[in-house]
Amino acid sequence: MDHFLYRDGRLHAEDVDLSQVAAEVGTPFYCYSTATLTRHFQLFDDALSWGPHLVCFAVKSASNVALLRVLARLGAGMDVVSGGEYLRATAAGVPGERIVFSGVGKTREEMRLALEGGVRQINVESEPELAALSEVAALMGAVAPIALRVNPDVDARTHEKIATGRKEDKFGVPLSRAREIYAEAARLPGVEVVGIDVHIGSQLTDLAPFEAAYLKVAELTRALRADGHDIRRLDLGGGLGIPYTRSNEPPPLPADYGALIERTVGDLGCEIEIEPGRLISGNAGILVSRVVYVKEGEGRRFLILDAGMNDLIRPAMYGAHHDIVPLAEPAPGAETREHDVVGPVCESGDTFARARALPPLAEGDLVAFRSAGAYGAVMSSEYNSRPLVPEVLVDGHHVAVIRPRPTFDEMIGRDTIPPWLA
Ligand SMILES: *Cc1c(COP(=O)(O)O)cnc(C)c1O
């Protein structure tokens, strides 16, 4: 469910005509819907309403401060994985007590930054990190609230690059060593154990791996409590998938996910934290692009767009599918033809779709990549010296640029020529 629909034959973001935005902002650009962001956050919040909880938005999926502000005003917490994301969350007005700091390679500087600014919990992923955090906190006269990220050795059955809960993945500590490391944590002066953390991967389209992981977390909770630890929070991670195409079976709903959490860990009396990213931001954003050329190849027709893999890398990186729709609504029953949809970047990997059935399109026409709100703009770059793609936010009939496109001078001006080359 999203708020990008045709109205009077033209694709709108809520009440805003996207062709008009394209005329004002230029293409390509990302556009986000406040109503979709809000709705998806609310679905999670409602799904956990059976007990104390905090929905912490995974900032890495869509990190524009304006988007974070929308969610912060709804009471969302934030899950951050770097000092930069921590500062984005605070810039959006999120108080430290609603920020969870995750990530496998936090530096001491990042730890200091979070402890100085205030943090709800730091999710620790290894013994050396635990030792470093205790040292940093103790030097500051602080005590860091921590959860240990455990690796439950569960296969999330998702794309290789985004599975994180198998024993061969770099994340967390093995479940078999958890009690020992919690005992170590209890002896350290700079940390205080508050809970357990787990995150098994992204774009999960089946609840079974979550269930397997959460049952292991429940068992560990009981064991750690018996060892004398005050386990009062469970951070169950993110990862619920979204429908990237309408033809597939839809992934489980947040309500079913919430019920699964209640069934597996609900009797432990813990405050529940979850860290959804994609399911909140994915369908809340689209990428709008213009057709530069339609090129007839040998036996194939190429649709060459002004958006490239530097603007949306998911197809090249994960083989991901994005529905592509024209901004001008095709007539009902309009004929379609197969197109290879490609960008202008000088790599064959800069291909968004092969043999995609699309209605007739011509030079200058506008198209939108749907479900591009998560892991879209955040993974964009200036490869091929294509200025960073801008972002636009819509709320009802309001529309605002929330990150402008840099000018060529701004882009090139960041480089400096050293004196010996002057
Ligand atoms: C990426 C990530 C998330 C969010 O995953 P989604 O699939 O976007 O919901 C949550 N927690 C951690 C620790 C992550 O690395």
Characterization of this structure:
- The protein is an alpha/beta fold and 422 residues long.
- It is built from twelve helices and 21 strands.
- It has helices spanning 18-25, 34-47, 65-73, 83-91, 108-117, 127-140, 178-187, 208-226, 254-265, 278-281, 314-318, 408-413; strands at residues 4-7, 10-13, 16-17, 29-33, 53-58, 77-80, 99-101, 121-124, 144-151, 173-174, 191-197, 233-235, 271-274, 285-296, 301-305, 324-326, 337-342, 351-358, 366-369, 391-395, 398-403.
- Strands 4, 14, 15, 16, 17, 18, 19, 20 and 21 form a nine-stranded mixed beta sheet that branches. Strands 5-6-7-8-9-11-12-13 form an eight-stranded parallel beta barrel, surrounded by five helices. Strands 1-2-3 form a three-stranded antiparallel beta sheet.
- The longest helix has 19 residues, at 208-226.
- The structure holds pyridoxal-5'-phosphate.
CATH C-level label of the largest domain: Alpha Beta
Helix content: 25-40%
Radius of gyration: 23 Å
Please give the alpha-carbon distance between the first and last residues. 56 Å
How many domains, in number, for the residues?
Answer: 2
**Strand share of the residues?**
15-25%
Beta-strand segment tally = 21
User: What is the arithmetic mean of pLDDT?
Assistant: 96
Low-confidence stretches: none
Bound molecules: pyridoxal-5'-phosphate
Number of H/I helices: 12
Question: Summed up, what is this model?
Answer:
It is built from twelve helices and 21 strands. By secondary structure, the protein is of the alpha/beta class. The longest helix has 19 residues, at 208-226.
